Fold this sequence. Notes:
Chain A is of the alpha/beta class and 586 residues long.
Amino acid sequence: MGATAAPLRRVYATRTLTLTASLLAAGLGFVVFLQFGASDGFDAFDVLRAALIFASTFWLAWGAFTALAGLTTRPPAVPRDPGPLRAMTAILVPAYNEDPVATFARIAAMEASLRATGHGDRFHFAILSDTRNDEVAARERIWFLRLLADTHGEGRIFYRRRTSNKGRKAGNIEDFIKRAGGAYTYAIILDADSLMEGATMVEMVRRMEAAPDLGLLQTLPKVIRARSRFGRIMQFAGGFYSPVFARGLAMMQGRTGPFWGHNAIVRMRAFAESCGLPELSGKPPFGGHILSHDYVEAALLARAGWTVRVDDDLQGSYEEAPENIIDHAKRDRRWCQGNLQHSRLLLAPGLKAWSRFVFLQGILAYIAPVFWLAFLAASIAAPLFAPPIDYFPIEYWPFPVLPVSQVSKALALAVGIGGLLFLPKLLILLDAALRGRARGFGGGLRALQSTLTELLFSSLTAPIFLMFQTRSVLQVLRGADGGWPAQSRGDGTLSFRDAWAASHWIVTTGGVVLVMAQWLSPELVLWLMPVALPMVLAPLLISWSSRPSRSLLFTTETEITPAPVMRLHDAILARWDESLEDRNAA
Amino acid sequence: MMDLAKPDQFDLDRLAEELGALPHAPLAMPLQTLEPAPREGLFSALLRARPRRMGKAGS
Protein backbone atom coordinates (compact mmCIF):
# COMPACT_ATOMS: atom_id res chain seq x y z
CA MET A 1 0.00 0.00 0.00
CA GLY A 2 0.96 3.61 -0.13
CA ALA A 3 4.07 4.54 1.73
CA THR A 4 2.36 5.73 4.88
CA ALA A 5 -0.48 3.31 5.09
CA ALA A 6 -0.57 0.92 7.97
CA PRO A 7 0.31 -2.71 7.32
CA LEU A 8 -2.69 -4.58 6.04
CA ARG A 9 -2.88 -6.78 9.12
CA ARG A 10 -3.35 -3.74 11.33
CA VAL A 11 -5.92 -2.33 8.94
CA TYR A 12 -7.96 -5.53 9.04
CA ALA A 13 -7.61 -5.73 12.82
CA THR A 14 -8.89 -2.15 13.23
CA ARG A 15 -11.78 -2.78 10.87
CA THR A 16 -12.73 -6.00 12.64
CA LEU A 17 -12.50 -4.44 16.09
CA THR A 18 -14.52 -1.37 15.12
CA LEU A 19 -17.15 -3.44 13.35
CA THR A 20 -17.40 -5.97 16.18
CA ALA A 21 -17.64 -3.27 18.85
CA SER A 22 -20.34 -1.46 16.85
CA LEU A 23 -22.32 -4.65 16.33
CA LEU A 24 -21.99 -5.51 20.03
CA ALA A 25 -23.20 -2.04 21.06
CA ALA A 26 -26.10 -2.29 18.62
CA GLY A 27 -26.88 -5.82 19.84
CA LEU A 28 -26.83 -4.65 23.46
CA GLY A 29 -29.23 -1.84 22.56
CA PHE A 30 -31.47 -4.38 20.84
CA VAL A 31 -31.59 -6.74 23.82
CA VAL A 32 -32.04 -4.01 26.44
CA PHE A 33 -34.85 -2.46 24.46
CA LEU A 34 -36.51 -5.81 23.91
CA GLN A 35 -36.54 -6.38 27.68
CA PHE A 36 -37.94 -2.91 28.26
CA GLY A 37 -40.55 -3.23 25.50
CA ALA A 38 -41.66 -6.67 26.67
CA SER A 39 -42.36 -5.44 30.20
CA ASP A 40 -45.99 -4.72 29.30
CA GLY A 41 -46.36 -7.79 27.12
CA PHE A 42 -44.40 -8.82 24.09
CA ASP A 43 -45.64 -7.96 20.59
CA ALA A 44 -44.42 -7.34 17.04
CA PHE A 45 -44.05 -3.62 17.74
CA ASP A 46 -41.42 -4.38 20.34
CA VAL A 47 -39.40 -6.35 17.80
CA LEU A 48 -39.79 -3.58 15.22
CA ARG A 49 -38.66 -0.91 17.67
CA ALA A 50 -35.76 -3.02 18.90
CA ALA A 51 -34.67 -3.59 15.28
CA LEU A 52 -34.80 0.18 14.65
CA ILE A 53 -32.72 0.74 17.79
CA PHE A 54 -30.22 -1.84 16.52
CA ALA A 55 -29.76 -0.08 13.16
CA SER A 56 -29.59 3.43 14.64
CA THR A 57 -27.26 2.44 17.45
CA PHE A 58 -24.95 0.65 15.03
CA TRP A 59 -24.50 3.86 13.07
CA LEU A 60 -23.82 5.92 16.20
CA ALA A 61 -21.44 3.29 17.55
CA TRP A 62 -19.56 3.13 14.26
CA GLY A 63 -18.83 6.86 14.45
CA ALA A 64 -17.90 6.65 18.13
CA PHE A 65 -15.51 3.71 17.70
CA THR A 66 -13.92 5.32 14.64
CA ALA A 67 -13.08 8.31 16.85
CA LEU A 68 -11.78 6.04 19.60
CA ALA A 69 -9.56 4.30 17.06
CA GLY A 70 -8.35 7.70 15.92
CA LEU A 71 -7.31 8.58 19.46
CA THR A 72 -5.02 5.58 19.73
CA THR A 73 -2.42 6.58 17.12
CA ARG A 74 -0.68 9.59 15.63
CA PRO A 75 -0.19 10.17 11.88
CA PRO A 76 2.79 8.10 10.72
CA ALA A 77 5.93 9.61 9.19
CA VAL A 78 5.48 10.07 5.48
CA PRO A 79 7.94 9.19 2.71
CA ARG A 80 8.34 12.00 0.22
CA ASP A 81 10.50 12.72 -2.75
CA PRO A 82 12.81 15.58 -1.70
CA GLY A 83 14.33 16.09 -5.15
CA PRO A 84 13.51 18.83 -7.65
CA LEU A 85 9.92 18.81 -8.90
CA ARG A 86 9.84 17.50 -12.46
CA ALA A 87 6.17 16.70 -12.91
CA MET A 88 3.64 19.24 -14.13
CA THR A 89 0.51 19.62 -12.04
CA ALA A 90 -2.78 21.18 -13.07
CA ILE A 91 -4.82 22.83 -10.33
CA LEU A 92 -8.44 22.50 -11.34
CA VAL A 93 -10.94 25.05 -10.05
CA PRO A 94 -14.48 24.17 -11.15
CA ALA A 95 -16.88 27.10 -10.87
CA TYR A 96 -20.66 27.06 -11.09
CA ASN A 97 -22.33 30.47 -10.80
CA GLU A 98 -19.78 31.55 -8.19
CA ASP A 99 -18.71 35.10 -7.37
CA PRO A 100 -15.68 35.49 -9.67
CA VAL A 101 -13.99 38.10 -7.49
CA ALA A 102 -13.83 35.85 -4.43
CA THR A 103 -12.97 32.73 -6.44
CA PHE A 104 -10.29 34.29 -8.63
CA ALA A 105 -8.76 36.10 -5.65
CA ARG A 106 -8.27 32.67 -4.05
CA ILE A 107 -6.48 31.55 -7.21
CA ALA A 108 -4.27 34.64 -7.12
CA ALA A 109 -3.46 33.89 -3.47
CA MET A 110 -2.58 30.25 -4.17
CA GLU A 111 -0.52 31.30 -7.18
CA ALA A 112 1.47 33.74 -5.04
CA SER A 113 1.86 31.11 -2.32
CA LEU A 114 3.15 28.61 -4.88
CA ARG A 115 5.57 31.12 -6.36
CA ALA A 116 6.96 31.70 -2.87
CA THR A 117 7.92 28.01 -2.68
CA GLY A 118 10.09 28.41 -5.77
CA HIS A 119 8.10 25.76 -7.63
CA GLY A 120 5.41 27.97 -9.16
CA ASP A 121 6.48 27.07 -12.70
CA ARG A 122 5.53 23.40 -12.12
CA PHE A 123 1.88 24.27 -11.53
CA HIS A 124 -0.83 25.55 -13.86
CA PHE A 125 -4.30 26.66 -12.88
CA ALA A 126 -7.38 25.81 -14.94
CA ILE A 127 -10.63 27.60 -14.13
CA LEU A 128 -13.33 25.25 -15.38
CA SER A 129 -16.50 27.27 -15.61
CA ASP A 130 -19.85 25.53 -15.75
CA THR A 131 -21.62 28.80 -15.04
CA ARG A 132 -25.08 28.98 -16.60
CA ASN A 133 -25.73 32.63 -15.77
CA ASP A 134 -24.43 34.76 -18.67
CA GLU A 135 -24.02 37.83 -16.50
CA VAL A 136 -21.84 35.91 -14.05
CA ALA A 137 -19.94 34.39 -17.00
CA ALA A 138 -19.25 37.87 -18.41
CA ARG A 139 -17.85 38.91 -15.02
CA GLU A 140 -15.78 35.74 -14.94
CA ARG A 141 -14.09 36.73 -18.20
CA ILE A 142 -13.36 40.25 -17.01
CA TRP A 143 -11.94 39.04 -13.71
CA PHE A 144 -9.97 36.35 -15.46
CA LEU A 145 -8.17 39.04 -17.43
CA ARG A 146 -7.59 40.94 -14.21
CA LEU A 147 -6.20 37.76 -12.66
CA LEU A 148 -3.84 37.26 -15.61
CA ALA A 149 -2.67 40.85 -15.45
CA ASP A 150 -2.10 40.66 -11.69
CA THR A 151 -0.19 37.41 -11.72
CA HIS A 152 1.46 37.62 -15.14
CA GLY A 153 -0.19 34.25 -15.49
CA GLU A 154 -0.54 34.02 -19.24
CA GLY A 155 0.23 30.46 -20.29
CA ARG A 156 -0.04 29.27 -16.66
CA ILE A 157 -3.63 30.18 -15.78
CA PHE A 158 -6.40 29.03 -18.11
CA TYR A 159 -10.10 29.68 -18.31
CA ARG A 160 -12.72 27.82 -20.25
CA ARG A 161 -16.49 27.78 -20.07
CA ARG A 162 -18.44 24.75 -21.19
CA THR A 163 -21.40 25.28 -23.45
CA SER A 164 -23.20 22.36 -21.81
CA ASN A 165 -22.64 21.26 -18.24
CA LYS A 166 -23.16 17.58 -18.98
CA GLY A 167 -22.18 15.37 -16.06
CA ARG A 168 -21.99 18.34 -13.69
CA LYS A 169 -18.72 18.61 -11.74
CA ALA A 170 -17.49 15.13 -12.70
CA GLY A 171 -18.27 15.92 -16.35
CA ASN A 172 -16.47 19.25 -16.00
CA ILE A 173 -13.28 17.54 -14.80
CA GLU A 174 -13.64 14.84 -17.43
CA ASP A 175 -13.93 17.48 -20.15
CA PHE A 176 -10.65 19.02 -18.96
CA ILE A 177 -8.87 15.67 -18.95
CA LYS A 178 -10.09 14.82 -22.44
CA ARG A 179 -8.84 18.16 -23.77
CA ALA A 180 -5.69 18.84 -21.80
CA GLY A 181 -5.05 16.00 -19.33
CA GLY A 182 -2.11 14.69 -21.36
CA ALA A 183 -0.06 17.78 -20.47
CA TYR A 184 0.02 16.98 -16.75
CA THR A 185 1.20 14.19 -14.47
CA TYR A 186 -1.03 15.25 -11.59
CA ALA A 187 -4.17 17.27 -11.01
CA ILE A 188 -5.10 18.95 -7.76
CA ILE A 189 -8.87 19.10 -7.69
CA LEU A 190 -10.36 22.01 -5.77
CA ASP A 191 -13.76 23.52 -5.16
CA ALA A 192 -14.50 27.16 -5.91
CA ASP A 193 -14.16 27.92 -2.18
CA SER A 194 -11.00 25.88 -1.65
CA LEU A 195 -7.79 27.50 -0.53
CA MET A 196 -4.44 25.73 -0.21
CA GLU A 197 -0.97 26.75 0.81
CA GLY A 198 1.59 26.49 -1.97
CA ALA A 199 3.82 24.42 0.33
CA THR A 200 0.97 21.95 0.87
CA MET A 201 0.48 21.50 -2.87
CA VAL A 202 4.21 20.96 -3.36
CA GLU A 203 4.20 18.44 -0.50
CA MET A 204 1.29 16.58 -2.09
CA VAL A 205 3.23 16.25 -5.33
CA ARG A 206 6.30 15.03 -3.42
CA ARG A 207 4.21 12.35 -1.72
CA MET A 208 2.74 11.26 -5.04
CA GLU A 209 6.24 11.07 -6.52
CA ALA A 210 7.39 8.91 -3.62
CA ALA A 211 4.57 6.38 -4.06
CA PRO A 212 4.13 5.32 -7.69
CA ASP A 213 1.08 3.20 -6.80
CA LEU A 214 -0.70 6.13 -5.19
CA GLY A 215 -3.62 7.16 -7.42
CA LEU A 216 -5.23 9.75 -5.17
CA LEU A 217 -4.17 11.60 -2.06
CA GLN A 218 -6.89 13.34 -0.06
CA THR A 219 -6.20 16.10 2.48
CA LEU A 220 -8.43 16.97 5.40
CA PRO A 221 -9.60 20.51 4.62
CA LYS A 222 -10.26 22.84 7.53
CA VAL A 223 -13.29 25.09 7.45
CA ILE A 224 -12.32 28.77 7.55
CA ARG A 225 -13.89 32.22 7.46
CA ALA A 226 -17.12 31.25 9.20
CA ARG A 227 -18.93 34.31 10.54
CA SER A 228 -22.33 33.16 11.79
CA ARG A 229 -23.01 31.30 15.03
CA PHE A 230 -23.86 28.14 13.12
CA GLY A 231 -20.90 28.54 10.80
CA ARG A 232 -18.44 29.06 13.64
CA ILE A 233 -19.78 26.11 15.62
CA MET A 234 -19.36 23.89 12.55
CA GLN A 235 -15.92 25.39 11.94
CA PHE A 236 -14.91 24.59 15.51
CA ALA A 237 -16.36 21.07 15.33
CA GLY A 238 -14.58 20.44 12.03
CA GLY A 239 -11.24 21.72 13.28
CA PHE A 240 -11.41 20.16 16.73
CA TYR A 241 -13.02 16.74 16.21
CA SER A 242 -12.50 15.93 12.51
CA PRO A 243 -8.74 15.27 12.64
CA VAL A 244 -9.37 12.48 15.16
CA PHE A 245 -12.25 10.97 13.15
CA ALA A 246 -10.09 11.22 10.01
CA ARG A 247 -7.23 9.47 11.85
CA GLY A 248 -9.59 6.63 12.74
CA LEU A 249 -10.71 6.45 9.15
CA ALA A 250 -7.11 6.47 7.93
CA MET A 251 -6.39 3.48 10.18
CA MET A 252 -9.15 1.52 8.49
CA GLN A 253 -8.75 2.64 4.89
CA GLY A 254 -6.01 0.27 3.73
CA ARG A 255 -5.57 0.88 0.02
CA THR A 256 -9.15 2.10 -0.34
CA GLY A 257 -9.22 5.54 1.22
CA PRO A 258 -11.78 8.24 0.57
CA PHE A 259 -12.15 11.00 -1.99
CA TRP A 260 -14.24 13.95 -0.84
CA GLY A 261 -14.36 15.65 -4.23
CA HIS A 262 -11.88 18.47 -3.60
CA ASN A 263 -8.61 19.44 -1.90
CA ALA A 264 -7.06 16.24 -3.23
CA ILE A 265 -4.43 15.33 -5.79
CA VAL A 266 -4.88 12.62 -8.40
CA ARG A 267 -2.43 10.90 -10.72
CA MET A 268 -3.79 12.03 -14.07
CA ARG A 269 -3.21 8.79 -15.97
CA ALA A 270 -4.73 6.66 -13.21
CA PHE A 271 -7.74 8.93 -12.93
CA ALA A 272 -8.28 9.06 -16.70
CA GLU A 273 -7.96 5.29 -17.11
CA SER A 274 -10.17 4.39 -14.17
CA CYS A 275 -12.72 7.10 -13.53
CA GLY A 276 -14.76 7.66 -16.72
CA LEU A 277 -18.21 7.67 -15.18
CA PRO A 278 -21.09 6.28 -17.20
CA GLU A 279 -24.67 7.45 -16.76
CA LEU A 280 -26.66 4.95 -14.77
CA SER A 281 -29.64 3.40 -16.48
CA GLY A 282 -33.00 4.87 -15.60
CA LYS A 283 -34.04 8.33 -14.54
CA PRO A 284 -32.81 10.45 -11.61
CA PRO A 285 -32.69 10.32 -8.65
CA PHE A 286 -31.39 6.73 -8.84
CA GLY A 287 -30.40 6.74 -12.51
CA GLY A 288 -28.69 9.29 -14.75
CA HIS A 289 -25.48 11.12 -13.85
CA ILE A 290 -23.72 9.98 -10.72
CA LEU A 291 -24.24 12.77 -8.28
CA SER A 292 -21.76 11.95 -5.51
CA HIS A 293 -19.06 11.07 -8.01
CA ASP A 294 -16.14 11.38 -5.58
CA TYR A 295 -16.89 8.21 -3.59
CA VAL A 296 -17.35 6.32 -6.85
CA GLU A 297 -14.09 7.63 -8.30
CA ALA A 298 -12.24 6.51 -5.17
CA ALA A 299 -13.82 3.06 -5.49
CA LEU A 300 -12.92 2.86 -9.19
CA LEU A 301 -9.29 3.82 -8.57
CA ALA A 302 -9.07 1.12 -5.91
CA ARG A 303 -10.73 -1.36 -8.26
CA ALA A 304 -8.05 -0.63 -10.86
CA GLY A 305 -5.34 -1.41 -8.30
CA TRP A 306 -4.38 2.15 -7.32
CA THR A 307 -3.99 3.21 -3.73
CA VAL A 308 -6.30 5.91 -2.45
CA ARG A 309 -5.17 7.53 0.77
CA VAL A 310 -6.16 10.30 3.15
CA ASP A 311 -3.13 11.91 4.79
CA ASP A 312 -4.59 13.51 7.86
CA ASP A 313 -1.28 15.10 8.81
CA LEU A 314 -1.25 17.44 5.79
CA GLN A 315 -1.90 20.99 6.91
CA GLY A 316 -2.68 24.10 4.87
CA SER A 317 -5.83 22.82 3.17
CA TYR A 318 -8.95 24.93 3.61
CA GLU A 319 -12.55 25.25 2.50
CA GLU A 320 -15.58 27.32 3.41
CA ALA A 321 -18.91 25.96 4.62
CA PRO A 322 -22.57 26.98 4.81
CA GLU A 323 -23.35 29.78 7.24
CA ASN A 324 -26.80 28.62 8.27
CA ILE A 325 -28.85 25.50 8.83
CA ILE A 326 -30.96 25.98 5.70
CA ASP A 327 -27.96 26.20 3.35
CA HIS A 328 -26.48 23.22 5.15
CA ALA A 329 -29.72 21.30 4.63
CA LYS A 330 -29.78 22.23 0.92
CA ARG A 331 -26.28 20.87 0.44
CA ASP A 332 -27.22 17.84 2.48
CA ARG A 333 -30.20 17.22 0.19
CA ARG A 334 -27.80 16.88 -2.73
CA TRP A 335 -25.48 14.61 -0.75
CA CYS A 336 -28.45 12.54 0.39
CA GLN A 337 -29.52 11.90 -3.19
CA GLY A 338 -25.94 11.10 -4.18
CA ASN A 339 -25.46 8.66 -1.33
CA LEU A 340 -28.78 6.88 -1.84
CA GLN A 341 -27.95 6.61 -5.54
CA HIS A 342 -24.93 4.55 -4.48
CA SER A 343 -27.37 1.75 -3.63
CA ARG A 344 -27.26 1.09 -7.38
CA LEU A 345 -23.52 0.53 -7.15
CA LEU A 346 -23.33 -1.78 -4.15
CA LEU A 347 -23.02 -4.75 -6.48
CA ALA A 348 -20.93 -3.03 -9.17
CA PRO A 349 -18.50 -5.57 -10.63
CA GLY A 350 -15.00 -5.84 -9.22
CA LEU A 351 -15.22 -3.30 -6.40
CA LYS A 352 -13.22 -3.86 -3.23
CA ALA A 353 -15.31 -5.04 -0.28
CA TRP A 354 -14.34 -1.90 1.67
CA SER A 355 -15.57 0.34 -1.18
CA ARG A 356 -18.95 -1.41 -1.02
CA PHE A 357 -18.96 -0.94 2.76
CA VAL A 358 -18.20 2.78 2.29
CA PHE A 359 -21.22 3.06 -0.01
CA LEU A 360 -23.29 1.27 2.61
CA GLN A 361 -22.06 3.64 5.32
CA GLY A 362 -23.06 6.63 3.19
CA ILE A 363 -26.52 5.18 2.70
CA LEU A 364 -26.83 4.38 6.39
CA ALA A 365 -25.81 7.93 7.31
CA TYR A 366 -28.96 9.18 5.63
CA ILE A 367 -31.26 6.29 6.48
CA ALA A 368 -30.36 6.29 10.20
CA PRO A 369 -32.39 9.46 10.95
CA VAL A 370 -35.38 7.83 9.31
CA PHE A 371 -34.90 4.86 11.63
CA TRP A 372 -34.86 7.20 14.64
CA LEU A 373 -38.03 8.90 13.50
CA ALA A 374 -39.70 5.57 12.77
CA PHE A 375 -38.66 4.44 16.26
CA LEU A 376 -40.31 7.50 17.83
CA ALA A 377 -43.48 7.03 15.80
CA ALA A 378 -43.62 3.32 16.66
CA SER A 379 -43.08 4.13 20.35
CA ILE A 380 -45.94 6.61 20.39
CA ALA A 381 -48.24 4.17 18.59
CA ALA A 382 -47.12 1.08 20.55
CA PRO A 383 -49.75 1.28 23.32
CA LEU A 384 -52.48 0.96 20.68
CA PHE A 385 -51.16 -2.48 19.77
CA ALA A 386 -49.91 -3.70 23.13
CA PRO A 387 -51.65 -6.84 24.41
CA PRO A 388 -53.52 -6.48 27.72
CA ILE A 389 -51.36 -7.18 30.76
CA ASP A 390 -51.75 -10.73 32.01
CA TYR A 391 -51.73 -10.57 35.81
CA PHE A 392 -52.18 -14.34 36.15
CA PRO A 393 -49.59 -15.79 33.76
CA ILE A 394 -49.06 -18.94 35.91
CA GLU A 395 -51.77 -21.53 35.71
CA TYR A 396 -53.52 -22.36 39.04
CA TRP A 397 -51.48 -19.69 40.85
CA PRO A 398 -54.05 -17.70 42.83
CA PHE A 399 -52.08 -14.49 43.28
CA PRO A 400 -51.57 -11.81 40.60
CA VAL A 401 -48.09 -11.25 39.20
CA LEU A 402 -47.49 -7.53 38.87
CA PRO A 403 -45.22 -6.44 36.00
CA VAL A 404 -41.82 -5.20 37.13
CA SER A 405 -40.99 -1.67 36.04
CA GLN A 406 -38.32 -1.69 33.35
CA VAL A 407 -37.76 2.07 33.35
CA SER A 408 -34.18 1.45 34.49
CA LYS A 409 -33.60 -0.42 31.20
CA ALA A 410 -34.88 2.55 29.20
CA LEU A 411 -32.66 4.86 31.23
CA ALA A 412 -29.66 2.62 30.68
CA LEU A 413 -30.36 2.65 26.95
CA ALA A 414 -30.67 6.44 26.90
CA VAL A 415 -27.42 6.80 28.86
CA GLY A 416 -25.69 4.35 26.50
CA ILE A 417 -26.82 6.20 23.39
CA GLY A 418 -25.91 9.53 24.99
CA GLY A 419 -22.50 8.05 25.76
CA LEU A 420 -21.95 7.07 22.14
CA LEU A 421 -22.82 10.62 21.12
CA PHE A 422 -20.89 12.56 23.74
CA LEU A 423 -18.06 10.37 24.98
CA PRO A 424 -15.91 10.51 21.80
CA LYS A 425 -16.08 14.31 21.77
CA LEU A 426 -15.21 14.53 25.47
CA LEU A 427 -12.29 12.16 24.95
CA ILE A 428 -11.11 14.26 22.01
CA LEU A 429 -11.24 17.28 24.33
CA LEU A 430 -9.18 15.43 26.94
CA ASP A 431 -6.69 14.33 24.29
CA ALA A 432 -6.42 17.89 22.93
CA ALA A 433 -5.83 19.26 26.44
CA LEU A 434 -3.15 16.66 27.23
CA ARG A 435 -1.30 17.01 23.95
CA GLY A 436 -1.47 20.81 23.79
CA ARG A 437 -3.67 20.87 20.70
CA ALA A 438 -6.26 22.86 22.69
CA ARG A 439 -3.94 25.90 22.53
CA GLY A 440 -5.02 26.40 18.93
CA PHE A 441 -8.60 26.67 20.15
CA GLY A 442 -8.06 29.36 22.76
CA GLY A 443 -6.61 27.11 25.49
CA GLY A 444 -7.95 24.20 27.55
CA LEU A 445 -10.67 26.16 29.35
CA ARG A 446 -11.96 27.84 26.19
CA ALA A 447 -11.91 24.50 24.35
CA LEU A 448 -13.87 22.93 27.23
CA GLN A 449 -16.48 25.71 27.10
CA SER A 450 -16.67 25.47 23.31
CA THR A 451 -17.05 21.68 23.39
CA LEU A 452 -19.82 21.75 26.01
CA THR A 453 -21.68 24.49 24.14
CA GLU A 454 -21.23 22.60 20.88
CA LEU A 455 -22.67 19.47 22.51
CA LEU A 456 -25.68 21.49 23.68
CA PHE A 457 -26.12 23.13 20.27
CA SER A 458 -25.77 19.86 18.35
CA SER A 459 -28.30 18.22 20.71
CA LEU A 460 -30.77 21.04 20.10
CA THR A 461 -30.34 21.04 16.35
CA ALA A 462 -30.19 17.23 15.92
CA PRO A 463 -34.00 16.89 15.69
CA ILE A 464 -34.08 19.66 13.06
CA PHE A 465 -31.44 17.89 10.96
CA LEU A 466 -33.28 14.64 11.57
CA MET A 467 -36.37 16.17 10.00
CA PHE A 468 -34.52 17.67 7.03
CA GLN A 469 -32.71 14.39 6.37
CA THR A 470 -35.89 12.37 6.67
CA ARG A 471 -37.59 14.68 4.20
CA SER A 472 -34.64 14.37 1.81
CA VAL A 473 -34.73 10.58 1.99
CA LEU A 474 -38.49 10.49 1.40
CA GLN A 475 -38.16 12.90 -1.54
CA VAL A 476 -35.48 10.74 -3.13
CA LEU A 477 -37.46 7.55 -2.52
CA ARG A 478 -40.50 9.02 -4.19
CA GLY A 479 -38.35 9.93 -7.19
CA ALA A 480 -37.85 13.69 -6.80
CA ASP A 481 -34.58 14.92 -8.31
CA GLY A 482 -32.96 17.71 -6.27
CA GLY A 483 -31.19 19.14 -9.35
CA TRP A 484 -27.90 21.00 -9.02
CA PRO A 485 -28.47 24.24 -7.13
CA ALA A 486 -25.53 26.63 -6.87
CA GLN A 487 -23.92 26.85 -3.43
CA SER A 488 -25.05 29.83 -1.38
CA ARG A 489 -22.02 31.66 -0.12
CA GLY A 490 -21.70 34.93 1.74
CA ASP A 491 -23.33 36.38 4.79
CA GLY A 492 -26.15 33.84 5.22
CA THR A 493 -28.15 35.70 7.88
CA LEU A 494 -31.78 34.53 7.96
CA SER A 495 -34.70 36.53 9.32
CA PHE A 496 -37.29 34.76 11.45
CA ARG A 497 -39.67 34.97 8.50
CA ASP A 498 -37.18 33.18 6.19
CA ALA A 499 -36.51 30.58 8.87
CA TRP A 500 -40.23 30.08 9.40
CA ALA A 501 -40.84 29.66 5.66
CA ALA A 502 -38.20 26.93 5.53
CA SER A 503 -39.14 25.11 8.72
CA HIS A 504 -42.83 25.62 9.56
CA TRP A 505 -43.46 21.99 8.64
CA ILE A 506 -40.98 20.94 11.31
CA VAL A 507 -42.85 23.04 13.88
CA THR A 508 -46.11 21.39 12.84
CA THR A 509 -44.57 17.93 13.05
CA GLY A 510 -43.15 18.67 16.51
CA GLY A 511 -46.57 19.88 17.67
CA VAL A 512 -48.29 16.81 16.26
CA VAL A 513 -45.74 14.52 17.94
CA LEU A 514 -46.44 16.11 21.32
CA VAL A 515 -50.22 16.04 20.91
CA MET A 516 -50.20 12.42 19.73
CA ALA A 517 -47.89 11.41 22.55
CA GLN A 518 -50.10 13.15 25.12
CA TRP A 519 -53.12 11.36 23.67
CA LEU A 520 -51.69 7.88 23.15
CA SER A 521 -48.73 7.58 25.51
CA PRO A 522 -48.73 10.40 28.07
CA GLU A 523 -45.86 8.79 29.95
CA LEU A 524 -43.69 9.37 26.84
CA VAL A 525 -44.18 13.13 26.69
CA LEU A 526 -41.28 13.90 28.99
CA TRP A 527 -39.00 11.50 27.09
CA LEU A 528 -39.95 13.13 23.81
CA MET A 529 -39.30 16.69 24.97
CA PRO A 530 -35.61 16.78 23.90
CA VAL A 531 -36.74 15.91 20.39
CA ALA A 532 -40.10 17.66 20.07
CA LEU A 533 -39.21 20.96 21.75
CA PRO A 534 -36.34 21.86 19.36
CA MET A 535 -38.67 20.96 16.50
CA VAL A 536 -41.28 23.42 17.78
CA LEU A 537 -38.54 26.03 18.22
CA ALA A 538 -36.92 25.30 14.84
CA PRO A 539 -37.43 28.75 13.22
CA LEU A 540 -36.01 30.48 16.30
CA LEU A 541 -32.98 28.21 16.40
CA ILE A 542 -32.39 28.52 12.65
CA SER A 543 -32.68 32.30 12.63
CA TRP A 544 -30.68 32.80 15.85
CA SER A 545 -27.85 30.55 14.71
CA SER A 546 -27.56 32.32 11.35
CA ARG A 547 -26.70 35.66 13.01
CA PRO A 548 -23.11 36.92 13.12
CA SER A 549 -21.11 35.54 16.01
CA ARG A 550 -18.81 37.67 18.10
CA SER A 551 -18.32 35.20 20.91
CA LEU A 552 -14.91 34.14 22.13
CA LEU A 553 -16.29 30.61 22.16
CA PHE A 554 -15.50 28.40 19.17
CA THR A 555 -12.17 30.06 18.56
CA THR A 556 -10.12 28.13 16.03
CA GLU A 557 -6.47 28.13 14.99
CA THR A 558 -7.05 30.15 11.82
CA GLU A 559 -9.03 32.78 13.75
CA ILE A 560 -6.12 33.25 16.15
CA THR A 561 -3.47 33.17 13.43
CA PRO A 562 -4.78 33.31 9.86
CA ALA A 563 -2.83 31.03 7.53
CA PRO A 564 -0.39 32.82 5.18
CA VAL A 565 -2.51 31.97 2.14
CA MET A 566 -5.56 33.45 3.89
CA ARG A 567 -3.65 36.69 4.47
CA LEU A 568 -2.64 36.74 0.80
CA HIS A 569 -6.28 36.19 -0.17
CA ASP A 570 -7.41 39.04 2.08
CA ALA A 571 -4.79 41.40 0.66
CA ILE A 572 -5.73 40.58 -2.94
CA LEU A 573 -9.44 40.94 -2.23
CA ALA A 574 -8.85 44.31 -0.57
CA ARG A 575 -6.81 45.49 -3.57
CA TRP A 576 -9.41 44.31 -6.05
CA ASP A 577 -12.29 45.78 -4.05
CA GLU A 578 -10.42 49.09 -3.90
CA SER A 579 -9.90 49.21 -7.64
CA LEU A 580 -13.57 48.32 -8.12
CA GLU A 581 -14.60 51.21 -5.90
CA ASP A 582 -12.23 53.55 -7.78
CA ARG A 583 -13.74 52.50 -11.07
CA ASN A 584 -17.30 52.91 -9.75
CA ALA A 585 -16.40 56.36 -8.41
CA ALA A 586 -14.93 57.36 -11.77
CA MET B 1 -23.95 36.18 -24.28
CA MET B 2 -22.21 39.05 -25.96
CA ASP B 3 -23.78 42.42 -25.65
CA LEU B 4 -23.58 43.96 -29.13
CA ALA B 5 -24.22 47.40 -27.67
CA LYS B 6 -20.85 47.12 -25.94
CA PRO B 7 -18.29 46.35 -28.60
CA ASP B 8 -15.47 46.76 -26.09
CA GLN B 9 -16.84 43.75 -24.24
CA PHE B 10 -16.60 41.85 -27.51
CA ASP B 11 -12.86 42.20 -27.41
CA LEU B 12 -12.63 41.27 -23.75
CA ASP B 13 -14.57 38.09 -24.38
CA ARG B 14 -12.37 37.12 -27.30
CA LEU B 15 -9.26 38.06 -25.38
CA ALA B 16 -10.31 35.93 -22.41
CA GLU B 17 -11.02 33.05 -24.74
CA GLU B 18 -7.67 33.34 -26.48
CA LEU B 19 -5.57 33.86 -23.40
CA GLY B 20 -7.49 31.26 -21.41
CA ALA B 21 -7.25 28.48 -24.00
CA LEU B 22 -6.28 25.17 -22.42
CA PRO B 23 -3.23 23.37 -23.77
CA HIS B 24 -4.15 20.86 -26.43
CA ALA B 25 -3.16 17.49 -24.95
CA PRO B 26 -6.10 15.10 -25.12
CA LEU B 27 -6.21 12.12 -22.83
CA ALA B 28 -8.67 9.26 -23.28
CA MET B 29 -11.08 8.64 -20.44
CA PRO B 30 -12.86 5.37 -21.18
CA LEU B 31 -16.25 4.80 -19.59
CA GLN B 32 -16.17 2.30 -16.76
CA THR B 33 -18.59 -0.54 -16.15
CA LEU B 34 -20.56 0.07 -13.01
CA GLU B 35 -23.74 -1.85 -13.55
CA PRO B 36 -23.63 -5.62 -13.85
CA ALA B 37 -24.73 -6.79 -17.29
CA PRO B 38 -28.45 -7.57 -17.22
CA ARG B 39 -28.86 -11.25 -16.51
CA GLU B 40 -32.06 -13.13 -16.32
CA GLY B 41 -32.73 -14.07 -12.74
CA LEU B 42 -34.68 -17.04 -11.46
CA PHE B 43 -37.69 -14.90 -10.56
CA SER B 44 -38.03 -13.29 -14.00
CA ALA B 45 -37.49 -16.69 -15.65
CA LEU B 46 -40.34 -18.07 -13.56
CA LEU B 47 -42.57 -15.14 -14.48
CA ARG B 48 -41.92 -15.69 -18.16
CA ALA B 49 -42.40 -19.44 -17.98
CA ARG B 50 -45.24 -20.78 -20.11
CA PRO B 51 -46.57 -24.32 -20.38
CA ARG B 52 -44.85 -26.22 -23.11
CA ARG B 53 -46.90 -26.47 -26.27
CA MET B 54 -47.97 -29.99 -26.89
CA GLY B 55 -48.99 -31.30 -30.27
CA LYS B 56 -52.55 -32.45 -30.56
CA ALA B 57 -53.03 -36.14 -30.18
CA GLY B 58 -52.89 -37.80 -33.52
CA SER B 59 -51.51 -34.79 -35.40
